[in-house]
Design a protein that fits this description.
Layout (H helix, E strand, L loop, with lengths): L2 H19 L4 H25 L8 H27 L13
Helix pairs in contact: 1-2, 2-3
Pfam family, one: Oxidored_q2
Subcellular location: Mitochondrion inner membrane; Mitochondrion membrane
Main location: mitochondrion
Amino acid sequence: MTIAHFAATSTFTMSVVGLALHRTHLVSALLCIEGMMLTLFTALAISPQTLNLTSTTIQPIIMLAMSACGAGAGLALLVATTRTHASDHLKTLNLLKC
């Protein structure tokens, strides 16, 4: 395992642990998900170099674009939640109420 693979694996694992353990605020959950997406982007961008491939792929760019769209949607949900509930605590959100 190279240092790049170890760094990507440990960063992804820390983001998953952060998402699982620290879910008090919506902002922290969104930041953990964004960290996971950036780690996947880095792993997809590094993998052709570690495999000694001459061609680069378009997959990291597409994944980064989808991640940006997801971050925009997450921020829109954060603003809407903060306006309606006056906080971003996940415990105050009730999915049964509309």
